[in-house]
Specification:
It is a single chain. This protein is of the alpha/beta class and 349 residues long. The chain has 11 helices and 11 strands. The radius of gyration is 19 Å and the shape is globular.
């Protein structure tokens, strides 16, 4: 699991199943080069890049643009996620899933969601035939931004996953109802896995300020939701922690809570904030944190791609410092953890 050498702790490289590297199309927010540097700075060995791009990876020709950038620029393995629908619109016509499948780790319309049940069924059937999972952004905007907007489409999708046998991964789980639905589905043997994010484990809506660094999608929820997410992570209902690293420009995040773009950065803060607030306080063993950040997502990614993920990092777990976004490798600076005093820094010989 990990090795101790004097004051240095050797941990396996983490795996993030949910990042946004913004290239091609939005390199003013992030590039594959800057995003991969941020991932290395955070102790990651591999990441999965969501398809919110221009052009989106909905055809093989479009995907090749992203693959070329990754090959030229990335400092670590970056696995693209292909679109479910053409244009990543969450509706209409499905993408070239069969042509994309050999080159992607799965399919998602992250940021949008597919709310047409018949279309999602077809997507699951085709993804299963390709041997790939659906990584689902569960959000029905017609239900507002309350908890039901997440758990209602999730309930439908879990039934479709049972019926089709498609591997189904739930992105950025944020509600207590979703945790219970996933728990029941796993108990019934459905092929489901799930992630949550550090901000949902450590913050609630009461912590939010009128500041863009607290605006993300899904939003922060209540204390009962936060507690259920933590319990679900500890008992294995939720498989792993992903950051949903989503950089925006300073201007886009400077319009107050309501006016700012949704999304925060997380690759460079995920381990220290969780280690400080969960492990050092006795809420979670270090072994469990390593499992949900490294071992479990590694197993999932290897099962989706057939590729082995390797790498270790040396950490100074007793090193204390203050999170300063101006030191980030990411182009993004917006994090709700700015100013937090944390423990755990990468060791550089």
């Amino acid at each position: 699991m990990f090795e101790q050498r004097d004051d240095i702790t050797i941990l396996p490289g983490f795996v993030d199943l949910h990042v946004h590297f913004r290239e091609p199309g939005f390199s003013v927010k992030e590039t594959v080069a800057s995003g991969s540097r941020a991932a290395l700075r955070g102790g990651y060995a591999a990441v999965c890049a969501m398809p919110n791009l221009n052009p989106p990876p909905d055809t093989l020709e479009h995907l090749r643009i992203e693959l070329d950038i990754i090959a030229r620029s990335s400092r670590l393995p970056v696995f693209p996620v292909g679109c479910v629908t053409m244009g990543q619109r969450g509706e209409g016509v499905l993408s070239e899933m069969e042509r994309l499948a050999p080159h992607v780790c799965g399919f998602s319309d992250d940021g949008v969601g597919v709310n047409d049940g018949a279309l999602m069924r077809e997507a699951m059937e085709r993804a299963k035939a390709c041997g790939k999972p659906i990584l689902s952004h569960c959000e029905d905007k017609s239900l507002g931004d309350g908890p039901e907007s997440e758990w209602a489409p999730l309930a439908r999708d879990l039934e479709l996953a049972r019926e089709t046998g498609c591997r189904y991964h739930v992105c950025h789980v944020s509600t207590k109802e979703s945790v219970e639905l996933i728990r029941r589905a796993k108990r019934d043997g459905a092929p489901v896995s799930a992630e949550t994010a550090p901000h949902y484990l450590l913050l609630t809506a009461e912590d939010a300020q009128d500041d863009g660094r607290f605006r993300m999608n899904p939003p922060l929820r209540g204390e009962a939701d936060r507690a259920a997410l933590l319990a679900g992570l500890l008992d294995g209902t939720l498989d792993c922690v992903a950051t949903d690293h989503a950089p925006h420009t300073r201007e886009e995040k400077s319009r107050g809570f309501r006016g700012s773009a949704c999304g925060i950065v997380g690759l460079e803060t995920a381990f220290p904030v969780l280690y400080t607030r969960l492990v050092r306080t006795g809420i979670m063993p270090l072994e469990k944190l390593v499992d949900v950040m490294a071992d479990a997502p590694r197993r999932l990614l290897e099962s989706w791609t057939g590729r082995a993920i390797t790498g270790t990092y040396a950490w100074e777990l007793d090193k204390r410092y203050t999170i300063d976004p101006e030191t980030f490798e990411s182009k993004g600076r917006s994090t709700p953890f700015a100013g937090w005093e944390v423990y755990g820094a990468l060791y550089y010989a």
